[in-house]
């Protein structure tokens, strides 16, 4: 979507219906949750999700939390085991995010999961967030609505000051009950704490009847910051390649003849939207040597290059 002046909407049924329409059009909508204001996009649309990273100016692609109105909706996108069901029954709606196996046919953009086969999901407790998620009727990817590296927003004024010219709509639901971020628990294997937050660990352990594994525990292979770096294509990666050498598959950018082109017109948002999908396709093609065109190191290009440098690092 193009960026017309920011649409500031009231949190009533009408305002929320208009916000849902913006999400349906692939736009970016900031909305209140009980933790902080979120910056939401349709989690099934690559370009909309790329827009989140562009608006925040994030220098890397961290996986995003998908927001849903209830457990039944969450079950469409990921697989709950007994532990996950117990935690969701006890703490949803609320400040608990669960990392669960992604259903392969869920239709979630690979940019949301940073190419992982797990998905972080949360059911927020804020009435305006609930109203919006129900009006929209689909999965909403939403990190905090602040420029990367800045303080998380707890009022609509914070959001419009930080991102006002980069998003399409803002639902003003008043100040958030200044919350901590959500607690993140992985229920892939033994339940593990990935991030401390609004729900205390003790309450989770009482519910589970067992201690949580901790992020630095060798039994917990995944900690949020590092996790994304685990995803790399199977083939070796050579960066800043002006053309493919024999035996190489070229992942192009800009007006080059390539096996796969992230954006023939050199559009960084389009390239970001396609990146993880194309890395997967290279695996499916059986590419053992991958050459990648130079990508400008500005805007979303920084996050793209961060991901590609990790993919190219010796393993
Ligand atoms: P934020 O949306 O800014 O509150 O941050 C989301 C957090 O969830 C980040 O720390 C992510 O690394 C983490 N996260 C999201 N998806 C996953 C996932 N599939 N596995 C592990 N951590 C995740
Ligand atoms: Mg944040």
Structure notes:
With 315 residues, the protein is α/β, with parallel strands linked by helices. It folds into two domains: 7-180, DHBP synthase; 236-312, no CATH class. Helix content is 32%, strand content 17%. The protein is built from eleven helices and 14 strands. The chain has helices at residues 13-24, 46-56, 71-74, 82-91, 110-113, 127-136, 156-163, 201-208, 224-227, 268-284, 300-312; strands spanning 7-9, 29-32, 37-42, 65-67, 96-101, 118-122, 140-141, 169-171, 183-186, 192-195, 236-238, 249-252, 260-261, 289-292. Strands 1-8-2-3-7-4-6-5-9-10 form a ten-stranded mixed sheet, with helices on both faces. Strands 11-14-12-13 form a four-stranded parallel sheet, covered by helices on one side. Helix 1 (13-24) crosses helix 6 (127-136), helix 2 packs across helix 10 (268-284) and helix 10 packs parallel to helix 11. The chain is globular, with a radius of gyration of 20 Å. The protein starts with 6 loop residues before the first strand and ends with a helix. The structure holds adenosine monophosphate (AMP) and magnesium ion (MG). Adenosine monophosphate (AMP) binds at residues 62-65, 99, 113, 116, 118-120, 143-144, 181, 184, 194-195, 222, 224, 227. Adenosine monophosphate (AMP) binds next to strand 6, strand 10 and helix 9.
């Amino acid at each position: 979507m193009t960026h017309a002046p920011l649409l500031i909407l009231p949190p009533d049924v009408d305002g929320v219906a208009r916000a849902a329409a913006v999400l349906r059009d692939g736009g970016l909508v900031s909305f209140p949750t009980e933790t902080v204001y979120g910056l939401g996009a349709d989690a099934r649309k690559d370009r909309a999700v790329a827009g989140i990273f562009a608006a925040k100016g994030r220098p890397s692609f961290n996986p995003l939390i998908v927001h849903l109105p209830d457990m039944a909706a969450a079950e469409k996108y990921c697989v709950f085991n007994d532990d996950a069901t117990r935690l969701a029954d006890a703490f949803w709606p609320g400040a608990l995010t669960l990392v669960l196996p992604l259903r392969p046919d869920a239709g979630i953009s690979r940019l949301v999961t940073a190419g992982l086969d797990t998905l972080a999901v949360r059911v927020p407790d804020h009435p305006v967030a609930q109203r919006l998620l129900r009006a929209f009727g689909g999965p909403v990817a939403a990190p905090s609505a602040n420029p990367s590296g800045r303080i998380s927003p707890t009022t609509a004024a914070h959001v419009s000051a930080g991102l006002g010219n980069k998003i399409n709509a803002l639902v003003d639901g008043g100040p958030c009950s200044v919350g901590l971020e959500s607690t993140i628990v992985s229920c892939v294997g033994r339940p593990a704490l990935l991030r401390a937050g609004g729900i205390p660990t003790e309450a989770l352990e009482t519910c589970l009847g067992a201690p949580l594994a901790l992020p630095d525990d060798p039994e917990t292979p995944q900690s949020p910051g590092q996790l994304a770096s685990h995803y790399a294509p199977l083939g070796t990666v050579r960066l800043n390649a002006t053309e493919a050498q024999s035996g190489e598959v070229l992942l192009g950018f800009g007006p080059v003849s390539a096996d796969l082109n992230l954006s023939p017109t050199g559009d960084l948002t389009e390239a970001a939207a396609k990146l993880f999908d194309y890395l997967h396709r290279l695996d499916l093609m059986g590419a053992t040597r991958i050459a990648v065109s130079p990508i400008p190191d500005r805007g979303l290009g920084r996050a793209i290059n961060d991901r590609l440098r990790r993919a190219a690092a010796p393993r």
